[in-house]
Amino acid sequence: MLEPSGTWIHAEALHVAPIDMTGAGDSFNAGFLYTTLHGVSAEECLRFGSACGAMATLRIGGVKGAPTTDVVRQFMAGQQR
Which residues form a coiled coil (predicted)? Predict the structure, then answer.
């Protein structure tokens, strides 16, 4: 992702066993926008959006069971090495 300052930021890939990729991009966008609107750093927005997108692949269908912020944070904590 390119920040307005011209600096590129990256997020590590999250390791999941996807079931259905429907809605993963929309889920990434939702998570990224949610954190952006809450004044979170660009790096954290990217990580949170990535987690939302990854979690969306773990169930069938693009809309069912969207996770809460706490559930996303728990998922992110479990992904850290």
Answer: none
